[in-house]
């Protein structure tokens, strides 16, 4: 399917990039994905060192302060999420939202909260049982982005809104999403999801606030909901490459000590 894909892979993971290729990566794009994942790991090593010597001290922030606003977009997104997601997947999506919001607060990133919530709460709709096409036929992030974009069109949302939300969903498996190139919303969805699954950036989350998020939205069943060890992903897509790199073994719970008794 390489004839459908530009030689410039800077748009890797966007909806436009995925047209006609099912989300399949070429060799250059696979190398870019691996590089992105390595970059995130290096950042975490640096964060750990900064934390140990007292240079990384995130501030507490209330969950109410970070809560999504009540808008037509957030209500439509929540309606679709509640209709399609089981509890474990919905809680993962909520943690993605709050972890992204906490990272944004720590790093002083400006973003549209309604757009971010809509993308975060629906970013894994491609893993839901009612979703079509099945993930073995297409990258689930790509097909999920298309589905949400089309859903928002049917709900009367503007072209700009539905494209930004759809792209953020499609991009979230890139390992690292450039805020400069793709905007704050896509950047934060990817980081929030990566934080919940792998713990990437967890040193930038204040522990008291983190514990409150985990108490409100427990991680029970998240690995099963994400089908990390069981999904038959479409060949050469980002999830297929990422799970293969992990040996199809689920990552350990990065927050197992947060709620442990002192």
Could you characterize the architecture of this molecule?
The radius of gyration is 17 Å and the shape is globular. The longest helix is centred in the first third of the chain and has 26 residues, at 27-52. It is built from 13 helices and no strands. The chain is mainly alpha-helical and 262 residues long.
Helix and strand topology:
Blueprint lengths: L14 H4 L8 H26 L10 H4 L5 H13 L2 H21 L5 H10 L17 H15 L4 H13 L7 H4 L1 H15 L8 H10 L5 H5 L11 H8 L17
Helix pairs in contact: 4-6, 5-6, 5-10, 6-8, 6-10, 7-8, 8-10
Descriptors for this entry?
262 residues, disordered N terminus, 56% helix
Measured as a percent range, the helix fraction is 55-70%
Return Rg in Å.
Answer: 17 Å
Q: How many DSSP H or I helices?
A: 13
Principal-axes geometry comes out as globular
Q: Stretches where pLDDT falls below 50 for ≥5 residues?
A: 1-8
The biggest beta sheet reads: none
State the distance separating the first and last CA atoms.
54 Å
Instruction: Kindly name the structural category.
Output: mainly alpha
Quote the average pLDDT.
94
Order of helices and strands: HHHHHHHHHHHHH
Tally of strands: 0
β-strand percent reads under 5%
User: What is the count of structural domains?
Assistant: 1
Short overview:
The protein has 262 residues and is mainly α. The protein has 13 helices and no strands. The protein has one domain.
């Amino acid at each position: 399917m390489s004839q459908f894909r530009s030689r410039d892979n800077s748009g890797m993971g966007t909806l436009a990039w995925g047209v006609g290729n099912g989300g399949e990566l070429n060799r250059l794009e696979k190398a870019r994905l691996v590089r992105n994942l390595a970059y995130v790991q290096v950042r975490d090593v640096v964060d750990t060192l900064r934390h140990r010597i007292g240079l990384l001290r995130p501030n507490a922030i209330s969950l109410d302060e970070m809560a999504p606003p009540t808008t037509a977009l957030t209500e439509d997104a929540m309606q679709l999420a509640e209709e399609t997601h089981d509890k474990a997947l919905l809680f993962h999506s909520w943690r993605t939202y709050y972890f992204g919001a906490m990272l944004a607060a720590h790093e002083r990133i400006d973003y549209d909260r309604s757009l971010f919530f809509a993308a975060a709460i629906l970013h894994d709709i491609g893993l839901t049982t009612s979703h079509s096409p099945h993930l073995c036929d297409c990258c689930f992030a790509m097909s999920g982005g298309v589905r949400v974009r089309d859903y928002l069109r049917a709900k009367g949302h503007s072209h700009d809104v539905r494209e930004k939300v759809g792209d953020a969903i499609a991009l979230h498996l890139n390992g690292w999403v450039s805020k400069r190139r793709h905007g704050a919303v896509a950047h934060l969805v990817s980081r929030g999801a990566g934080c919940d699954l792998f713990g990437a950036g967890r040193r930038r989350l204040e522990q008291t606030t983190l514990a409150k998020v985990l108490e409100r939205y427990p991680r029970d069943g998240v690995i099963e909901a994400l089908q990390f060890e069981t999904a038959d992903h479409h060949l050469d897509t980002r999830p297929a490459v990422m799970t293969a790199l992990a040996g199809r073994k689920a990552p350990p719970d990065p927050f197992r000590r947060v709620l442990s008794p002192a």
